[in-house]
Write a structure and sequence with these properties.
heterodimer; A: mainly beta; seven-stranded mixed beta sheet; B: six-stranded mixed beta sheet; five-stranded antiparallel beta sheet; about 0% helix; globular
Chain lengths: ~110, ~110
């Protein structure tokens, strides 16, 4: 497919578990973004990559959140020791340089 | 006060109506303005992308930016039930696809 894909689409974790969320950007897009979207809210910025370099991680809410993009394409957002407040939709977007194109998101529920 | 404000709705209109969706913002450095449509359990989909003040039309959609009032609008003509979704405005100070700030979204229902 030509769009941004994310997996898994749904993830249920017990509090304290680690989770890993994957994003496959549009081929050739240099920039990749992760957002967190709470119910009834707009996406909130988490972190930004240009190729494999993480240029901005100012939105990551705590040191339990970690993102990587080692080869400048696929990216993984990892959340360690999940808490109930981490329950949200995690959106990935990629950009060719002007605007952003979003994936379908991963809905994370922490019980 | 949030940087970007948007009436959350829900907004219900009959099919065929003209819909007006609005955002206000506080940062005068915003130059680039976007509207995204988000269906339930889907990611946001880009509808319109505009730069600075003025109007831009694309089919049934018109985006309007008034920088002097820090106010942007999206008009939908001849609204259809398939337009029922949440509409998110987003804005940025640059055109590199970075530093997007989103509004909370307005939920729209178009009733057949």
């Amino acid at each position: 497919g030509a769009g941004v894909s994310q997996s898994p689409r749904y993830k249920v974790a017990k509090r304290g578990q680690d989770v890993a969320l994957r994003c496959d950007p549009i081929s050739g897009h240099v920039s990749l973004f992760w957002y967190q979207q709470a119910l009834g809210q707009g996406p909130e910025f988490l972190t930004y990559f240009q190729n494999e370099a993480q240029l901005d991680k100012s939105g990551l809410p705590s040191d339990r959140f970690f993102a990587e993009r080692p080869e400048g394409s696929v990216s993984t957002l990892k959340i360690q020791r999940t808490q109930q407040e981490d329950s949200a939709v995690y959106l990935c977007a990629s950009s060719p340089g002007d605007t952003q194109y979003f994936g379908p998101g991963t809905r994370l529920t922490v019980l | 006060q949030k940087e970007v404000e948007q009436d959350p709705g829900p907004l219900s209109v009959p099919e065929g109506a003209i819909v007006s969706l609005n955002c206000t913002y506080s940062n005068s450095a915003f130059q680039y303005f976007m509207w995204y449509r988000q269906y339930s359990r889907k990611g946001p989909e880009l509808l319109m992308y505009t730069y600075s003040s003025g109007n831009k039309e694309d089919g049934r959609f018109t985006a309007q930016v008034d920088k002097s009032s820090k106010y942007i609008s999206l008009f939908i003509r001849d609204s259809q039930p398939s337009d029922s979704a949440t509409y998110l405005c987003a804005m940025s100070t640059n055109n590199y696809g970075q530093n997007f700030v989103f509004g909370p979204g307005t939920r729209l229902s178009v009733l057949p």
